[in-house]
Write a structure and sequence with these properties.
The chain is α/β, with parallel strands linked by helices. About 35% of the residues lie in helices and about 25% in strands. A 6-stranded mixed sheet has the order 6-7-8-3-9-10, with helices on both faces. Strand 4 and strand 5 form a beta hairpin. Helix 3 packs across helix 4, helix 3 runs parallel beside helix 5 and helix 4 packs across helix 5. Bound molecules: adenosine-5'-triphosphate and magnesium ion. The site of magnesium ion (MG) has 3 residues, from helix 1. The site of adenosine-5'-triphosphate (ATP) has 12 residues, from strand 2 and helix 1.
């Protein structure tokens, strides 16, 4: 059984069709890239999977259970975590407190939530910021903080929305290393990314959206050689 199965999902905003009959799956332990030009519907798909939007139609199965239309907290409890395209850090809180907000979804004991948060800060290479305000961190570090915060909800699948955007090459390598460490823990990763040199080498599969429609799905090599994908990115 697939861990995540998106089946014929459509999402309309009035007359605008942001996702149209999109289907794809993610297996446990897989890294799947969701790519496509601006406005293709990638973030909308994340919002549907994580419960921020109810799809207009279609189903979203997590471990065989339909989570489409459930609110974000229920999706998080079911095992979906996500980061946001625009990092939402609580800048006046410390890095540890930021991660604790997520740990407390499952753990109401503050001391235990702090311990969980510290473990994920260490995992993300951010333990030196534990007691410092998140405002003191670089964009790259704040993105990893968002990843640590998402992981603290103990997801089965982590959705990352452009965590590599705007990073320099060595920061991209750090972000890639974190993704591989997450995968090695058995957590599936679904990654929206425009930084193709970050996602292509590590993805088991790439799904390509264009104007709301899935135009290709396959290995990074297959989609890079796909005529429809090349046209979508470069024009005719
Ligand atoms: N809440 C909303 N209300 C109305 N339209 C929306 C909403 N969210 C997204 N859209 C529209 O849906 C389409 C897909 O947007 P989406 O943000 O999913 O694209 P994207 O692939 O993530 O693009 P980008 O690469 O620029 O982040 C766009 O035309 C966008 O304007
Ligand atoms: Mg987006």
């Amino acid at each position: 059984m697939k861990l995540l199965e998106v089946k014929q999902v459509s999402k309309r905003f009035g007359g605008l069709v942001a996702n149209q009959d999109v289907s794809f799956g993610v297996d446990t332990g897989q890294v799947v890239g969701l790519i496509g030009p601006n406005g293709a519907g990638k973030t909308t798909m994340f919002n549907c999977v994580a419960g921020y939007f109810a799809p207009t139609s279609g189903s979203i199965l997590l471990g065989g259970r339909d989570i489409a239309g459930l609110p974000p907290e229920a999706c998080a409890r079911a095992g979906v975590a996500r980061t946001f395209q625009i990092a939402r850090t609580f800048t006046s809180m410390t890095a540890c407190e930021n991660v604790m907000t997520a740990a407390m979804l499952l753990q109401h004991n503050v001391a235990k939530a702090r311990k969980t948060a510290m473990d994920w800060l260490v995992f993300a290479g951010l333990e030196r910021f534990a007691d410092r305000p998140a405002a003191s961190m670089t964009i790259s570090e704040q993105r990893r903080l968002a990843v640590a915060r998402a992981l603290a909800t103990q997801p089965r699948i982590l959705l990352m929305d452009e965590v590599m955007a705007g990073l320099n090459p060595s920061e991209v390598r750090e972000a890639v290393d974190v993704v591989l460490k997450i995968r090695d823990k058995g957590i599936a990763c679904l990654i929206v990314e425009h930084v193709l040199e970050g996602i292509m080498p590590i993805a088991d599969k790439i799904v390509v959206l264009d104007r709301g429609v899935k135009i290709a799905e396959g290995t990074p090599q297959q989609v890079s050689n796909d005529a429809a994908v090349i046209t979508a990115y470069l024009g005719d």
